[in-house]
Amino acid sequence: MKFNKLNIIIVLGLVAIIGILVAQLLWTKQAYNLEEKKFSQKAHIALLEVAKKLYEGTNHELPSENPVQKVSNDYYIVNIDNDFEPEILEFYLKSEFEKANINTDFEYAMYNCHSDEMVYGNYVSLDKTKKQSSVYFPKHKNLVYYFAIRFPNEATYLFSSLKFWFVLSFALIVILLVYVYSILTILQQKKYSELQRDFINNMTHEFKTPLSSILIASNYLMKQDKIKQDEKLEKYTEIIINQSNKLNSHIEKILNIAKSDNAPMDLDKQEIEVVPILKDVIENIRLKHENIVANIEAEKDFTIAADPFHFTNIVYNLIDNSIKYCELKPEINIRLTEENRQIKLEFADNGIGIPSKKLPEIFDKFYRIPSPKSNEVNGFGLGLYYVKKICNLHHWKIKAANNPENGITITILIPIS
User: Fold this and answer.
1) In CA terms, which of 29, 167, 284, 327 is 20 to 30 Å from 38?
2) Is CATH 1.10.287 correct for 163-262?
3) Which top CATH class is 270-415?
């Protein structure tokens, strides 16, 4: 695949989203570690306070060494060189954990020196309906009076405190998947578009060869005396030539559009006078449509920087459309004015008009307004698409609006350099 601008944008976008996602996952992991450390510190402080309270009112003093030891992530032991009751221990544990804002289930056990084993104390749950199950507490050597605390739901508790981080990570994953799906869809559509363009190019090229032969043969026939002497044969030959020329113009238009879509169109901008070009186009169209009425209203002789060939085509397309989509005697009023440092070029006709909802779509490629008149008129829906494309290349603005009575007005705004 050709490594063009679109591919570069796709790769950069994909790398950026993956980078953001990786960074988010690393931040989430860091946040979890910090939350785990914070929980461990709060549990440590709360258990130390419990140990101090168990020493109060006794003849023993709290040892200088820290009595709290963390055995694993959710398991702590507290060494108390003093005898204590389970009810008092549970009361202190509940009150200190509540002060430390440790809102998760816990269970505790105490060492019984008479039986030389850990005696299970109780499972304290915030949810009274939750099923409680005892867990084995191992015995620790060199300790006589001590108790152990386990937080069975510590991991769940920590995850619940990081809901925002996980929701954000999930959202980024969804965005990445949507982006990948969108890119695959765009690439698929691009492939189909290229296949369609190649098919149109090949088809039109194949049409041009037999069409050229038809035109050569028809023009040769027109010069024959027998054809000139027979009025019907001459008329039929003229029909063949006219229809062949019309078909040839359609093929040329399709080829030009396909070429401009495949590669940037080069403009040969020159300083040109607008009114003479308008008059030349009108004179050429009158050779084909003698009954048209075309008026030019210009405040002055305007000069613009434009490609003469393409600008002439724009004018021809707009006037030709006004004639084709008119059920009365065609009347086109062309106005040239200056407003807000812009040349305003308006083409107003008395045609059948366009439904307001369809106006934004008339410049789309291959689009034709569904109407009985459209079915009568030959075309591919490329004329206004070509006009809009040339205007965009010149950095002009173009818009369409319905007239109060009938017909439409196409307006081109050309900045004054």
Assistant:
1) 167
2) yes
3) alpha beta
